[in-house]
Design brief:
single chain, 314 residues, alpha+beta, Beta-lactamase, five-stranded antiparallel beta sheet, two-stranded antiparallel ribbon, 12 helices, 7 strands, 47% helix, binds 6-diazenyl-5-OXO-L-norleucine, acetylation, Glutaminase, EC 3.5.1.2, hydrolase
């Protein structure tokens, strides 16, 4: 068998394994679609997509991998990469911690005295990292965020305006958090403008395939394996994946690392990205969520793939 035929065969094997995991989990109807943002409650709960992007740029897919959904908290590690590149590690972490919170994504726990949020993956911390992205204006800051997310995905992404409006009307808890942090000095940009940028960032539309490519770009040291373009440095990717490993799954982070063994980030629309450093990116999508706000089928699929292929990094 020549190298081309061998590659085709490997590709068939990976795709059929993704299909097996998909078929096994598609009947799992545990969990519930997020409804605290009204627009998210309308999602089709049966959607399920699994995509894997290798560092050679090849993408393997099973199920609904081309259906768009809002990125939500899956944006947080990628916007954190931009804040790190703009400000440097020390300046970013003067304002936001690097410790798992052991609490839910919308926790109001802030460091006594400084008002620093625990880490860049919970909402409070992500609002701070969004505020640390450089920009001449609010529009410019969001344009830079959208360009960074698009570079990670390898295509031009756009905002879902209906979800954005829904986020804004149901964002009191995030506004409350931002005012607390502004009062304490950990957030220094204007509260409402910063939240507008954060809500926009959460409302960007992606597919499971997109987030697989985004995860693969992190795993590839910052070069998008599909476009061949450098998005960020290998050092930044190392920092981002470290924070994903320790804090990406919120109050499930420890058990996640035990069972899936990969840096990952969940979002409330049902997206889940995982990166296997030097190996591949995984993009999962299914809207029903568990109690920590992560996709039930996404978590189960990642755990099955990780165990089957022995992917645990630790
Ligand atoms: O901040 C929020 O409420 C949402 N727009 C994003 C939260 C999210 O995805 C949490 N992740 N599981």
């Amino acid at each position: 068998m020549g190298p081309m035929a061998a590659r085709e065969k490997l590709s068939d094997i990976v795709t059929s394994f993704l299909d097996i995991v998909h078929d096994r989990l598609v009947s799992d109807r545990r969990g519930a679609v997020a409804d605290y943002i009204p627009q998210l409650a309308d999602a089709d709960p049966e959607l399920f997509g699994i995509a894997l992007c290798g560092l050679n740029g090849r993408v393997y897919e099973s199920g609904d991998t081309g259906v768009e959904f809002t990125i939500q908290s899956v944006s947080k590690p990628f916007v954190y990469s931009l804040a790190l590149d703009d400000q440097g590690l020390d300046a970013v972490h003067d304002r936001v911690g690097a410790e798992p919170s052991g609490e839910a994504f919308n926790s109001v726990k802030l460091e006594a005295g400084t008002g620093r949020p625990p880490n860049p993956m919970v909402n409070a911390g992500a609002i701070v990292t969004t505020s640390l992205v450089s920009g001449r204006s609010t529009e410019d800051r969001f344009a830079r965020i959208l360009a960074r997310l698009s570079a990670f995905a390898g295509r031009d992404l756009r905002v879902d305006d209906a979800v954005l409006a829904s986020e804004q009307t149901s964002g009191d808890r995030n506004r409350a958090l931002a005012y607390l942090m502004h009062g304490a000095g950990s957030l220094t940009t204007p509260v409402l403008d910063t939240l507008d940028t954060y809500f926009r960032q959460c409302s960007v539309l992606v597919t499971a395939r997109d987030i697989a490519v985004m995860g693969a770009t992190l795993a590839n040291g910052g070069v998008n394996p599909v476009t061949g373009r450098r998005v960020t440095s290998a050092e930044t990717c190392q920092h981002v994946m470290t924070i994903m490993a320790t804090c990406g799954m919120y109050d499930y982070a420890g058990e996640w690392l035990l069972r899936a063994g990969l840096p990952a980030k969940s979002g409330v629309a049902g997206g889940l990205v995982a990166s296997s450093p030097g190996e591949f990116g995984l993009g999962l999508f299914s809207p029903r969520l568990d109690s920590s706000g992560a996709s039930v089928r996404g978590v189960a699929a990642a755990q099955q793939l990780a165990t089957r292929f022995g992917l645990h990094v630790l």
